[in-house]
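Working notes for the structural subgroup meeting. M.R. asked for a predicted model of this chain before we commit to crystallization trials. I am recording the input and output together here so anyone reviewing the notebook later can reproduce the run.

Input as submitted:
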Amino acid sequence: MSVTSSIRINRDLYEQAKLDAELEHRTIAGQIEFWARVGRAALDNPDLPVSFVAESLASLAEPHEHLQPFVPRSRHT
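Returned structure, recorded in token form:
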């Protein structure tokens, strides 16, 4: 069950979320939630680059029908 709440945020942050949300095909709320998840995961995993954390979380959110299976390179014998 999803619970929603209203919060106040800086107008500049809202405008940046609006721009990024459009590029990433998310809602504004979804974009801010994504940023929050990235920030939380980055704080929990300080040894990982933030870009890796963001890309990993984004890939977990992709629909399964769009996933490409891992195909290892052929081994040289």
